[in-house]
Amino acid sequence: MTAEFLNILTGINRPSAPSSGSMILVNDLYGVMPDAHTTFLGRQPVDPAWQSAFGQLIALSTVKRPHGPDFGAYLDELTREVGALIEKIQPQVIHAQYLGFALSQAFTRTAGNIPIIAIAHGPDVMVAERSVWEREGLNEVAAASAAIVAPTFALADRIDRLTGHQFTDRLTVIPWGIRLSDARVRDHPTGGGPLALVHAGRLDDNKSTITAVEALALTEQPHHLTVIGQGVLREHLELQASELGVRDRVQFEPFLPRGELWRRLPHFDAFVGTTKGTEAFGLVLIEAQAHGLPVAYSNLPEVREILGNTGVPYNPGDPQSLAGALDELGRDVHRRKALTEAALINACRYDITTTSRRLRELTLRFTL
Fold it and tell me: Whole-model pTM above 0.70?
């Protein structure tokens, strides 16, 4: 018996490159999905190496506009463009990335009888919790979807509340994953003392990198922190490090392609995750664990669900709590060794091939 072949239409309304966790995730996800042709709708510029995961990549031409007076006209124009593409591509199924965002709304308004699987990423839920306008968009996409996928039960619960428990039976949890086969494990720690710490991600308010910088000024040991990433708060973080007297112990580096980041990870002693608000999953935390790094993590429900006792939790946004966790790791080499072993075992639960297989199985339920 031959496997059912899937013709999938999906997309993210951003430049088509590995610029964020979501973009990296979808590239990995569809790159390993068997018996599927995926058409991806994105934006210019298109990274030629990145697009190889898809059968076809189409750059949207409608000029993107944010929420505001022109958003309605923009959504109408985007909907017309998407409708024409659907007519041409004739997909069996649509995977709507991000609940409520413009491209997903355009999909729902043009899909007709084509089933939609909506996939939540976190920022969509976060903005819907702050804005009635965004919440209406999220509910529109949820209502039009045959299934709604979230990477954690905690995020699924938040979506359930935002949609007034109207679509509880459509919610499915499929944990995200990484390409575990590409990870290289670091050597086990051999001694105590100050740690070489690393933090990687967007430098914005929600990621709260400032918590790590402020914690460094409170630790008993002179740990060193490398911050890898770009964002609107980069200059502010550098200024704060100087004002706190730790500028010589904080090194700032630009965003790195994942291959380069993964080559760097084994050279650190521990990873610091600092998100204080919404964290849909925390892929970079699993990436660190897959390389054998103990992880100090902000004790949010979604992150606690995937890491539990395989990492060291601290109070979100609390630099004193983080400082205590880092000093404990620095003093107790035996615990760090135990956390390295636990990290490797936990990371094995999150292979992208499992994510892809489960999403494919769910999709087939609505296309057969």
Answer: yes
